[in-house]
Amino acid sequence: MREHVRKLVQGAAPGTPAPSERELVSQFGVARMTVRQALDALVVEGLLERMPGRGTFVARPRRQQTQVASFSEAVARRGQVAETVTLLARVEQAGPGVARALEVEAGSAIVHWRRLRRAGGEAICVQDVYLAPDVLPGVLESVMPESLYEALCLRGLRPTWSEDSIQADLASDEERELLDFAAGELAPVLRVSRRAVHGERVVEVSRSAYRSDRFTLYLQLGPSS
Q1: Structure letter (DSSP) for residue 110
Q2: What is the pTM of this model?
């Protein structure tokens, strides 16, 4: 029965009514629960959607998941060019929090890359990135890449999903200076912690402090698909 309904609605325009439960019960001579389970399965697949009080219809195409965007890509969408100033790039021992996020042993060697990110001639954020050494082998032996995600893409390790947390805070004294806050000026920042994953592999852990008056973070939310 499920395949019968699938053939009936495949190719139909979104919003086209699906066969009613009563029609299918009469046609196949089965219990209404059996029909409902078949329709439920097609709803889960995304082929059908239920509209309370109206019925079941051919579903609209589900929105594709937004690609995990880098700072450079987010800035480019605003018509600007990202600039990067490397403040620190070295091998360190992973502390407990970073080790847990990167899924490595505490004390393991990791790459710590601290950057000042600019756009339109203005300082936008200070970002600390932590990488396992085998993610970008030899990265410290040459000029640091302008875009981390471009470098990961070349390695076939572009993040496929990420976990981000966002918190409002005030800048530290060092962040105030790097982000060009005036003396005595209130210095609000948005702290974004990211754990980016390619498939099942953690490829980046980062902590960023954005000037909230110079940069807006956009999130696309919706039902899971």
Answers
A1: E
A2: 0.69
